[in-house]
Please model this.
Amino acid sequence: MQGAKAIVQCLQKEKVEIIFGYPGAAVIPLYEELRQSSIEHILVRHEQAAVHGANGYARVTGKVGVCVVTSGPGATNAITGIATAYMDSIPIVIITGQVKRSMIGHDVFQEVDITGATEPFTKHSYLVKDATEIPRIFKEAFYIASSGRPGPVLIDIPLDVQEEEIDFSYPEQVVIRGYRPTFHGHPGQIKRALKRLQTAKRPLVCVGGGVLSAGAEPILQQFIEKAKIPIIHTFMGIGAFPTGSPYYLGMIGSHGHYSANRAINKADVVLFIGARIADRATGGSPQFAQNADIIHVDIDPAEIGKNIGALIPVVGDAKEVLQVFAEKIEPIEPFDSKEWLEETEKWKSRNLPPQPTEPGINPKYAVKRLSQILDQEAVLVADVGQNQMWAARNFDIYGKRKFFSSGGLGTMGYSLPAAIGVKVGDPKRTVVVVAGDGGFQMSLPELGTILQTGLKLIILLFNNQRLGMVREIQDRRYQALHGVHLDHNPDFIKLAQAYGFDGKQVTTYEEMEKAFQEAFTSKGTYIIECIVNEKESTL
Model:
């Protein structure tokens, strides 16, 4: 069979059902084979959206997301999406077309060294030089993307390789010399960690995205309830623990909750699990967790000690390590935690719920109100900017709810294509996009993808005619604004109608409530444009 058919066979062996893509000359043979296969193809309107779509699909399904783009500008358009997935440890495989092997290095039409360009932000990449390598490379790529610390893997396939004849045989096992992720934490280190927790007076647990990647949410909840330790999370840890728990204190960081930031600086022992503890979590403060002994659990040893020193490092999968913690915590004498829990409860009382304010719609209240009426399996996909933090701080997690956003790279325009991936991956869920007027316009053409696929999304669009996060920083630092005004936005509701969607612009809370109900009963995608005061703050 030809190389292109071998690629499709590999995808089917990996149980791939959906691909996000945008075709071009360098992937025509592959598309012909996809046409004849059972794999569904989602045609996006920009290659970056193909990667974001695969990102959202991977996050909601737990599978490896797959996208395909052509060579040259098709591949370079995908770069931001690849970097987004890398920073957030999302398992995706990106297939890029490439010019014929004999033309590589000659600067021919639509040639670019995409493996070289993406080397800093892919977990691994391949340039397929012989079609006989296709089965091995695809087997390795899916394994690398999904094992250890997940991440994007790129496979660059020249046009003539797709047309080359091979005898197909898919490997059953993966053997990659030098790549052996550690899943089980060292028993001695786990014992040390538990012993230190046992002697703590003010213990605290902080979780990140690694808990979600490992599917460790249930065992985390079991551990916390047995140990009776307060818990906080990083931005990427949203969704790892129910916000209504008495042990839940909120999100840490520069845009975090008062109670969480207060707790991290008062704790004498902090157990970090699956968290990078990057600058947004620490707020860039040298005093971050200054009074605490640090226990750091992470599957990537490179993350331990990178941003904050660890007294007890534990390299291992969050789920595997938490399983041991939950089992071993039982015989330990209960923590003398009553006083500590009472103190943290006082801090929580300062996390006041947002209230309706005027003029315009208070976006924090809008998210909180929507959160109150959404079902227990809803997924919120936030964009980047002020809207991201309005959503992060006010969307309640319980049941099987999920929250997705671009945390590490902070990619504006992420929400709409990622939400498409989420809805395609789990069509029964209610999927809500929260975006600002700036970021929404970065991926606006993906409304065409939604129309073509017949998906139903609820889009909560905050229009303050500003690049709000930048405006806020400029105002705070320089008391002057430049380059942040969006005074001539399009009519977003008419745009929605041009794509065949319903929507409503709201300026009062009565209108907002009515729009929410219309969005739920609408048969298709519905846009709620909230007019927001231009001076509205993030916190």
Summary: DSSP finds 23 helices and 18 strands in the chain. The chain has a mean pLDDT of 95. The two ends are 59 Å apart (CA to CA).
